[in-house]
Amino acid sequence: MIAHSRLRRTLWRGVRGICFDLGGTLVRGEAEPTTGQVAQVLGISLDEARAVMERGAKRRRISPEALARDLSAAFGRPALVGPLTHVLERARQRAAEPELFADAEPALAALRERGFLLFALTNSLGSSIPADPPTAFRALLDGVIYSAETGAVKPERAAFTAVEDACGLGPGQLLHVGDSLRADVAGAAAAGWHTAWLDRRFAGGPLLSPARTVRLHTLTTLPLLLPAGPTPAPPVTSEAR
pTM for this structure? Predict the structure, then answer.
């Protein structure tokens, strides 16, 4: 507890807002992610499927049926529109009723009670964005930023700029928590944010990297490392008006 108290005073003193990745961080996904299922249906590699999704499907809203047609045409497999549509429709249904990890709701509730702004930032397929924000997100988050609505995917700087614009905070006031070292940690660090890597699989390595990225194994730890509440914004002086 003494170590936690010391970290509270020094690690993230200026943080006023916290942003989370969704899949793998707040939301429990399927054993095989949607992109992997698409790759299996098309008979292509996971890397090929990721590349084509990142270039287009994660940057714009699109219906499951339309995306299935686009993918089947792109890979010359018109007979696979039906199976692809089935995979993508199931993904949209899961996104509308997400299954949160057991540690997500208690951690978010504790941080919200302290007064932190809470957002999520996700590289979402445009076909998976629910028509209305899921009930769990409305209760626990101030907003969800979807790549398919901004046109920018993590680790691109514009993805993190979209969160800054939504919450009105600067990079030094924001902490990003995610399970991807490339998309979440590297992207947020390059944007000047504080970062935490959620390593649910216990991949190993040191607790603190040279870039001061904190590795967590559970979201339960997060409230222990943050201040009791966000540092108030400095008052606007007459000279600054």
Answer: 0.88
2-27+98-231 placed in CATH 3.40.50.300? no
Domain ranges across the chain: 2-27+98-231, 34-96
Per-residue pLDDT of the chain (241 residues; tens, 9 = 90+): 445 555 555 689 899 999 999 999 999 988 899 999 999 999 999 999 999 999 999 999 999 999 999 999 999 999 999 999 999 999 999 999 999 999 999 999 999 999 999 999 999 999 999 988 898 899 899 999 999 999 999 999 999 999 999 999 999 999 999 999 999 999 999 999 999 999 998 866 554 454 578 999 999 999 999 998 886 655 444 443 3
Whole-angstrom Cα distance, residue 86 to residue 68? 9
